[in-house]
User: Fold this.
Amino acid sequence: MADKKTHDVKPHDVKPHDVKPHDVKPMKPEEILNLIHANRGTAICVPTMTTGPHWRTIAPDDLSVGCVGFMGGASSLGLGLALAQPDRRVLVLDGDGSLLMQLGSLATVAGAAPRNLVHFLFKNGVYHTSGAQGIPGGLTVDFVAMAKGAGYRMVCAIYDIEDFKRRLPEILKAEGPVFVELHTGLADQTPMTARGGVPFPKQVSDLRAKLLKPRARA
Assistant:
């Protein structure tokens, strides 16, 4: 687990939190996912909605379970995995439209206080999967403030891909629960345009089998 130095991370030192999303070029979700994939190590990953298609392309056989069929459930699914696997990092790849469906999960996660959970929120202001309709509040919704108020140990908003690249190793080592709001454009694919993938029950059984295998000794 992370040492006490992670407590010194200032949650809003990435950029002033009053920077407007349209003041900077949105990050590409695929670039963010590629960076997470390259740095995740042995973490369990929980993609959902528009993070799903690209993730299953770049990480088809890793420790992943996609949150499909229950919009807004990614953070709760990730919480359960984090509590069941306290010695392994769990990364939730959430969307703003999805999280709005289950805002109460912020308080649930914070209350359980899993030290190994990182909650990434891909914020684009729309329900992209169903046709890019605007979410309530659009880009003005402050998920960082809500996560901080709920009690997440570390929170931040990131607007720039180079900034994300620089901070990602620190984020992945920080003591959780960690909440990272990522200001992005729209993904190239959605579950509606890139159908297929492994059915959820099969994903769960496959992940369980992998987690039950003894870890290889260094």
